[in-house]
Amino acid sequence: MEHILGSDWTITPAGGSTGEAYYAQTEGKRLFLKRNSSPFLAVLSAEGIVPKLVWTKRLENGDVITAQEWLEGRELNPEEMKHPRVAALLSKIHHSTELLDMLMRLGKQPLTPTEILKDIKENQNVLNQIDPRIEIHHAINFLESHVDEVGHDVHVVCHCDTNHNNWLLSSSDQLYLIDWDNAMVADPALDLGMLLYSYIPVESWQDWLKEYGTEPKEDLYNRMVWYAVSQALSFIQWHQMRGEYDESSIRMRKLKNMMNVHNIY
């Protein structure tokens, strides 16, 4: 990275799952750099959903480096996920035709419940020796028994990981949703389910969804349950495959809570 910016820049890893993100700073200037970020980033920046894209450079080896504003700010805490502005920003994302058009042009096809279930079952076949817990198999049986009931013909851009630490509030009070590496075209219930189950008390769901801009209905609730269980399983499997068993246990507790609420046994 140093040869791109010059020797007067200090560059440090920014962490994250890919190991391809960096912070760069020099006198009075700070940037967030990423290697091989999706072209989708430009549209997200233009829509004000992520910090401003400053420049993009293609290297001789074909890699693409993007530079964004490095903002003073903090991630939201779990309690702040109840705020109406979180619902408003997620609604803006889900209703953006520009985001959807770009992701479709990049080759993303709508993700179906059948495809999600297939991936989960294939992964679990590999992981059964690591985690044979009965709750995992009850959850998969629940997904199988309801997979034909949750089809939906409205597809939007979904972030797919609406965890509170992906929501950035800048020092100028601007809210962003960052880390779009796993974005998909899918049922909006995919994002809504995990967010509501993780952060919003059930008695507040109706009000939160009205802030989001939709009328709560039984069909939406049923789809949210299905996607919340499927996402919890996917994250458990992902962390297990990486040997991150503490993170896997945290996701497992969330899954058990969902299963208890909906009597999934």
UniProtKB/TrEMBL annotation:
Single annotated GO MF: transferase activity
Residues spanning the membrane: none
Coiled coil region boundaries: none
Xref: Gene3D superfamilies: 3.90.1200.10
The keyword Transmembrane is assigned to this record: no
UniProt protein name: Phosphotransferase
Every Aminoglycoside phosphotransferase domain range: 14-219
InterPro entries: Aminoglycoside_PTrfase, CcrZ_PhaseVar_Mediator, Kinase-like_dom_sf
PANTHER family recorded: CELL CYCLE REGULATOR CCRZ (PTHR40086:SF1), PHOSPHOTRANSFERASE YTMP-RELATED (PTHR40086)
A Pfam entry, by short name: APH
Keywords from the UniProt entry: Transferase
Top-level lineage group: Bacteria
